[in-house]
Design brief:
The complex is a heterodimer. By secondary structure, chain A is of the alpha+beta class. Chain A has helices at 3-22, 71-88; strands at residues 26-34, 37-45, 48-57, 95-106, 109-115. Chain A is globular and about 45 Å long. Chain B has 21 helices and 19 strands. The model of chain B has no long low-confidence stretch (mean pLDDT 88). Classes of the chains: A alpha+beta, B alpha/beta.
């Protein structure tokens, strides 16, 4: 990963956090890590526990940001969610997986799309 | 939060009750269906989710598990969509449990939330009646319930009706009456009086018949006209035939209107297509022809294995299919009408054209059909090309309508006597009432031309039908002679 893309990702996540707070969600964790990997944002929407994956893109040449959340990534996020719930000792509660897709338009403008309950756990 | 909705899955012509249990609990969001559903049942997840949202209702963001009980039984088809959606909505208290209590639900969902009928609505209505439940489904449930009787309907044509909890409880009613198809008329066929007489006998007694003749002699034309002289189905036959059509997804309205099925599968038809089978199990052409006629044109061109598979159903009037996941019996009481050439070139025995086949070729051709199948055919009729003068003369030929009247009269004459095809031995003799001369003639004939036991029985049945057509209580020597004549013929 080049320094530039990392930087872009960090900026995107910051924007996502700002957005989530503005719509009234509480940020519980940012960049929570464990052996399986990393969750961009873990938030509370009322009593719902929300795991958020943030994808930021400068161009659409590699497809939309949403395309980047592949099946494999979804499965990894589910594993991470289980790990987090075990780690934090959260009992069965309503859980949601959201995706925030950010398309950078110019230096100070971007388009943000919030997909609530973007996917389900595969049975 | 749990909920249960009743539904049913098809096995053969029966709809077996299945319980759809939904469990909605907190945890990682998922939507799983367990209980041996096939791909169509698994795909219900996408349809159910979209249809619920399209109706302005909520699909829960929770752990949703659906169990189809009894779990070891295989389930198939899209009829589970509606009961699964109802179970989810009941479990999440979006609809009142009273809407689904005492009902068995069936229907396929479209992504826009509309509810569609599935094959076998008639079988579902039967099951609902047996369990004393209402039938919950799309409007197509109404005519099915009307046929079965003793079953009320709750109609949902679109999922949005559930939002206001207004499931209309409606009395079943029949849809507009079915118009009889215009069938080809016997008046179009010049000559062939013998073959027409044979068709009349076959129609009156549901006998198997084989037309043999050179190309272009009119075998197919004759056979197709059998449909127009068949008697209407009686009440029992209507239901059993319509039930098979319904589960096969074939329009059952003609059968319900009393039209006897007339099926004519092409000779490329596979064994499974003819006999039934596949996954999920589906009735074949022989079952779709139940209580009617199966017409096999170019009999010798059918696969030998396909033809031989018909031997057992021809005797039993039903077909038993045994598969890894169960045993299914489909009714298959049909009259077999077949047409074929006498040899590969087609002109064996023709008055003008010479046959170019060798003896060996003709033998091979006949072995494709084989003795056991031929033995089950009651009447073999030679159909020769007729004189061009007769075709062009445009003489007045008897129309199907008047032949049909005689057929109906013969059936009325037979009264309450069970159809002879169901009888053997002493009961057959008691029903046929042959006089002494008839019996001696039959015995002598059987010895001289070497009729099998089955052939003797079948000849007697044909003789009985001939007597019915003549309006005579006793089978006489003349009836036996005519019947035996169809069996030996100068053909094959």
């Amino acid at each position: 990963m080049t320094e530039k893309t990392t930087e872009l990702g960090v900026k995107g996540e910051a924007a996502a956090v700002q957005y989530l707070q503005r719509i009234g969600m509480t940020i519980a964790e940012q960049n929570w890590r464990c052996a399986t990997g990393e969750v961009d944002i873990i938030a509370l929407d009322g009593t719902d526990l929300v795991f958020v994956e943030v994808k930021t893109r400068r161009t659409s040449s590699a497809g939309t940001p949403e395309d980047a959340v592949s099946r494999t990534k979804q499965k990894r996020l589910v594993r991470l969610a289980r790990a987090y719930m075990a780690h934090a000792g959260v009992g069965p509660s309503t859980v949601r997986f959201d995706v925030i897709a950010i398309r950078v338009l110019s230096e100070d403008r971007a388009l943000l799309r919030h997909h609530r309950a973007a996917f389900l756990v595969e049975s | 939060m749990q909920a249960t909705v009743m539904t049913a899955t098809l096995l053969g012509v029966d709809a077996l009750p299945v319980e759809v249990q939904a469990d909605v609990s907190s945890g990682l969001p998922m939507f799983g269906i367990v209980g041996l559903g096939d791909t169509a049942v698994q795909e219900a997840r996408e349809r159910v989710r979209s249809a619920i949202r399209a109706a302005g209702l909520q699909f829960p963001n929770a752990r949703v598990i659906i169990n189809l009980a009894p779990a070891p039984m295989r389930k198939h088809g899209t009829g589970f969509d509606l009961p699964i959606a109802l179970a989810v909505l009941t479990a999440t208290k979006q609809i009142s449990a009273s809407l689904v209590e005492g009902a068995t639900a069936v229907g396929e969902l479209a992504l826009d939330g509309s509810v569609r009928p599935v094959p076998g609505m008639l079988a579902h209505a039967y099951t609902a009646a047996q369990m004393g439940y209402d039938l919950l489904g799309p409007s197509a449930a109404l005519p099915a319930a009307a046929v079965v009787g003793r079953v009320r309907c709750r109609i949902v044509d679109h999922m949005s009706a559930l939002r206001c909890g207004d499931i209309v409880s409606r009395e079943p009613h029949c849809t507009e009456p079915f118009d009889r198809l215009s069938l080809p008329d016997l008046a179009d066929v010049a000559g062939h009086d013998g073959a027409k007489r044979a068709l009349e006998i076959a129609a009156a007694g549901s006998h198997n018949l084989l037309f043999v003749g050179p190309p272009g002699s009119g075998k197919t034309m004759l056979a197709r006209r059998l449909g127009g002289i068949l008697p209407p189905l009686n009440d029992d036959e209507r239901l059993t035939t319509a039930l098979v059509h319904s589960v096969a997804g074939v329009d059952e309205r003609p059968a319900l209107a009393g039209v006897r099925p007339f099926r004519m599968p092409h000779h490329s038809t596979s064994s499974v297509g003819l006999i039934g089978g596949g996954s999920p199990l589906r009735p074949g052409e022989i079952s779709l022809a139940h209580n009617g006629v199966l017409f096999l044109d170019e009999l010798a061109e059918f696969g030998p294995a396909t033809l031989q598979a018909m031997r057992q159903p021809l005797e039993d009037g039903s077909i038993t299919l045994v598969r890894a996941d169960g045993r299914v019996v489909y009714p298959a009481a049909f009259a077999l009408i077949a047409a074929m050439n006498p040899c590969p070139c087609g002109y064996l025995g023709d008055a003008e054209k010479r046959c170019t086949c060798t003896e060996a070729m003709i033998d091979r051709y006949m072995t494709r059909i084989g003795g056991p199948l031929l033995d089950r055919i009651d009447m073999r009729i030679r159909v020769d090309r007729i004189d061009p003068g007769r075709i062009l003369a445009a003489a007045e030929e008897e129309p199907s309508e008047s032949v049909a009247r005689r057929v109906n009269k013969a059936i009325a004459f037979s009264g309450d006597r069970p159809p002879t095809r169901a009888l053997t031995g002493g009961r057959l003799l008691a029903a046929c009432l042959p006089n002494r001369a008839a019996l001696t003639t039959l015995e002598t004939l059987a010895r001289t031309i070497g009729l099998s036991g089955r052939a003797v029985t079948r000849t007697l049945r044909v003789a009985r039908t001939i007597a019915d057509l003549a309006g005579e209580t006793k089978v006489t020597r003349d009836h036996v002679l005519e019947a035996a004549g169809y069996r030996i013929g100068d053909t094959v």
